Fold:
Amino acid sequence: MNIVSAARRGLAILIPVAAFLALGSRVPHFLDLSNLLNVVRQSSITGICAVGMTFVIVIKGIDLSLAGLLAFCPMISGVLMLAGVDPPASMAAGMLAGIAMGLFNGLMVSRLTVPAFITTLVVGQISQGLALTINGGSSIGAFPDSFVFIGNGAIGGIPLSDLLLLAFLALGFFIERLTPLGNHIYALGGNETVLRQEGLSAARLQFFVFGFSGFCAAVSGLLLSAQLDTVQPTQGDAYQLDAIAACIIGGVDLAGGRGSVPMAVIGALIIGCLRNVLDLLGIHPFMQNVFIGSIIIVIVYLSGVIRRHGELATRGTL
Structure:
């Protein structure tokens, strides 16, 4: 994507978001430092999910298992902690469960050619069902202080939630820009034929991408449960839409092959600001999804219009 098309796409993203945030800046207490720091903390869950989702969308996929994994993985860790297992080992079990589910997504998509939409939707439902079954549909809590500290503590005055978000941002950026793996992932999304001609395995790349997305979802779920000191079987429902929205607002192209992890994380912060403004305005959480969804539709529409205009201009027809 050249500089001109990138600028046009950036305008498609910034116009509706900037308009909304300009109105939001007039809301009392929105610009208070304590409120903005709270927005970053709350956005860390969506941001970490968005890192993994970025790569999935880049390869022309989608991961609808996030909602289930955000509950299933910490439910496993929570049950183990309450049974007396050390928090690090319990968290490792939860993360391994997320990776396993993600790899299963990758297996179904890459080897059995089941569409990602169907595969991840089913895996999400299975994960949700397991989260409900493990503790009879009830939430669990009162975890060890060392676990709760991860979600609410700070190091050097910086919340651990923010540090984890920065760590995943750095990891995603490293994979995306500084490794051959990142180049291959973008090639898979942009031109799979060229990738095959170079003798690279599309299946292995899909396997990795969905496994990595599962890992990100597991960490996000554990962080959310650490922040709340509880695990609810349906706690991931609100974050799946936000993770996808963050990628779209951050300029990740649903057609595949284009997008970046840093912009997706910025998209997550924008989503956090939008929801915070709506909270301050007293908008019901159910209606917030209507606002967020409407913004996504506007951005996708404007992106398509600007992209088509740029293509016509390149061809010399304008």
Residues 43-263 form one domain. The chain has a mean pLDDT of 85. The beta strands are 140-141, 154-155, 158-159, 230-231. Residues 285-314 form the longest helix (30 residues).
